[in-house]
Design goal:
There is one protein chain. By secondary structure, the protein is an alpha/beta fold. It has two domains: 2-143, ATPase, nucleotide binding domain (Nucleotidyltransferase, domain 5); 190-373, ATPase, nucleotide binding domain (Nucleotidyltransferase, domain 5), CATH 3.30.420. Helices cover 39% and strands 19% of the residues. It has 16 helices and 13 strands. The protein has helices spanning 61-75, 103-110, 120-133, 162-166, 176-189, 191-194, 241-249, 255-264, 267-272, 278-284, 287-311, 321-326, 328-336, 347-351, 373-384, 387-392; strands at residues 2-10, 15-21, 29-34, 41-46, 51-52, 79-88, 99-100, 139-143, 197-203, 207-213, 216-220, 316-320, 365-368. The strands form two sheets. An eight-stranded mixed beta sheet has the order 5-4-3-2-1-6-8-7, with helices on both faces. The longest helix is centred in the last third of the chain and has 25 residues, at 287-311. The radius of gyration is 21 Å and the shape is globular. The structure holds adenosine monophosphate.
């Protein structure tokens, strides 16, 4: 009998899934359900990229989860589900580790929805749906904020009256599952760097940076929400709060309109007037697309400097995320003006998308490490659901 762990990343109308063997670290399959509702589509693939047929009711999250598992079940008839791991954007101020789900935890996490209204309710909907679809199967919540709870106070607070900090208005930082993966990969594959000062640039449709010392998060560019820091596909990144006051007071925009502007109309998309997709912008050839890339590169350089200052220096810069892992041009351009930090790229290695792309003589290592948030969820789920011991028994 094959025992498997399902990982779920639930959005408002989408579900990203992976299936891991309980005793392994490489996924057996991945998949995506899009447009949950009457017209949903589903795509499941095995580890070699071959399609796994699946169809059925996907009118709700619970129905979609059952359809996903039925698809995997007909491909691997001897499979049983041992546990489900969920990506949850917000774990609050006190949770520095992932957790087994029970009714009390679900209630606690629901109180955090006002902090992440665009993501948290959908993540929790995914947990409830999986509990309904697979009663009795352990569920584990993995938090994007957990890795950053090691922030020292100066990187955890805003200069607002203190009661706001006590009420939870803090720099939580996000993309924690990605940073956790990178930290564990450095520890196993580049142990000479693990104790050092490492800046990780997770550059994808969402983008942020994390400054790590000894494998722990010291600072991050994302703050209270996933809007702060770097410009992203459609999110603005760092913004003077005075702009928000102006939009409300002088332009009469509502909170909902401002939220739509900052989350969905800004960033690379807003600046280019064309696309949120870096590949499209790299090939566009318009002045606006070029300027959007210029702004992205500049803000990355600035934040690498800020992270290095927070760490008191830098031993390694690591790129990950769709842009960081694939765009040779963006990596080269970001590093171009960082020679003062000991950063110098080997262009042959960079063009080849090699793992180490710094030149031999450079003081600071520059690496490309493909991130793997699903693996972090699967391993945490395996440990918290007690599956390692049961397998050994
Ligand atoms: P992610 O959100 O991590 O999946 O990253 C998505 C972003 O990565 C999009 O902006 C893509 O255009 C970008 N991306 C993926 N592959 C490439 C590539 N080969 N060159 C440039 N950008 C890429």
């Amino acid at each position: 009998m094959m025992k498997a762990i399902l990982t779920l990343n639930s959005g408002s109308s989408s579900l990203k899934v992976s299936l891991f063997p309980v005793a392994g670290e490489t996924p057996l399959a991945t998949g995506l359900v899009d447009g949950i509702g009457p017209k949903a589509s589903i795509r499941l693939r095995d580890h070699e990229g071959a399609a796994i047929p699946a169809s059925g009711d996907m009118s709700s999250h619970a129905a979609a989860i059952r359809t996903v598992l039925a698809g995997f079940g007909s491909h691997w008839p001897d499979m049983t589900l041992a546990a489900v791991g969920h990506r949850v954007v917000h774990g609050g101020a006190d949770r520095a580790t992932h957790a087994l789900v029970d009714a009390g935890l679900l209630e606690e996490l629901a109180t955090l929805s006002p902090f992440a209204p665009l993501h948290q309710p959908h993540n929790l909907e995914g947990i409830r749906a999986a509990m309904e679809a697979f009663p009795g199967v352990p569920q584990v919540a993995c938090f994007d904020t957990a890795f950053h709870r090691s922030h020292p106070w100066v990187n955890d607070t805003f200069a607002l009256p203190r009661e706001f900090y006590e009420q939870g208005v803090r720099r939580y930082g996000f993309h924690g599952l990605s940073y956790e993966y990178i930290a564990s990969t450095i520890a196993s594959q580049a142990p000479h760097l693990a104790a050092g000062r490492v800046v990780v640039a997770h550059l994808g449709n969402g983008a942020s940076m994390c400054g790590m010392q000894g494998g722990r998060s010291i600072a991050s560019t994302m703050g209270f929400s996933a809007l702060d820091g770097l410009p992203m596909g459609t999110r603005c990144g760092q913004l003077d709060p005075g702009v928000v006051l102006y939009l409300m007071d002088q332009r009469g925009m509502s909170a909902r309109e401002i939220s739509d502007l900052l989350y969905k109309q800004s960033g690379l998309f807003g600046l280019s007037g064309l696309s949120n997709d870096m590949r499209t912008l790299e090939g566009a050839g318009t002045r606006e697309a070029a300027e959007a890339i210029d702004y992205f590169v500049f803000r990355c350089q600035r934040e690498i400097g800020a992270m290095a200052a927070a760490l008191g220096g830098i031993d390694a810069l690591i790129f990950c995320g769709g842009i960081g892992e694939n765009s040779r041009m963006i990596r080269a351009r970001i590093c171009e003006r960082l020679a003062w930090m000991g950063i110098e790229i080997d262009h042959t290695a960079n063009t080849a998308n090699a793992r180490v792309i710094s030149s031999d003589l450079a003081r600071t290592s520059v690496m490309v490490i493909p991130t793997n948030e699903e693996r972090v969820i699967a391993l945490a789920t395996r440990a918290l659901a007690g599956l390692i011991d049961k397998e050994a028994a």
